[in-house]
Design brief:
1 helix, 5-stranded mixed sheet, mainly beta, OB fold (Dihydrolipoamide Acetyltransferase, E2P)
Length: about 140
């Protein structure tokens, strides 16, 4: 078991592994939403969403046909993560941390903070702050 102090994580079921987010980044969760397509966005964006009168980008975690949005607030950045399955809460004490690739060697948009094993499946704790920095860097290169 993990010796760190216990905290709750939002878990998202993916196609090959599960993902987890620290609850401090989560603003809200919406189901069955309409994502508006928007031309000329970088490839990691799947559209835009009207969140309380503010237009925010929607980024897919894995699949583009997702209908559940997790609104994430990181510092001054606000965006939506699109997922296809309903997220659920797990307690960090119920998962076991295992060795993972160093975040610099991971491909893709999302940075990994830690890798856990839960009931025979992998759970990747996403590093939201590093992922936002990666997105901003990618956006600067695109435009």
């Amino acid at each position: 078991m993990n010796s760190k102090s216990s905290r709750e994580l939002l878990c998202i079921t993916g196609s090959e592994k599960n993902y987890a987010l620290d609850l401090k980044w989560i603003a809200e969760i919406y189901a069955d939403v309409h994502i508006s397509p928007f031309p000329c966005l970088p490839p990691h964006y799947i559209g835009m969403y009207n969140y309380k009168g503010q237009i925010i980008p929607v980024i897919s975690l894995e699949e583009a046909d997702a209908r559940i949005l997790i609104i994430i607030r990181c510092n001054d950045c606000l965006f939506a993560m699109a997922v296809s399955k309903e997220p659920f809460i797990i307690d960090q004490k119920d998962v076991e941390e295992i060795d993972s690739l160093h975040p610099d060697t991971m491909s893709g948009l999302w940075a990994e903070q830690a890798l856990y094993q839960m009931e025979g499946t992998l759970v990747s704790l996403l590093d939201i702050q590093s992922s936002v920095e990666k997105m901003q860097s990618m956006n600067e290169k695109e435009f």
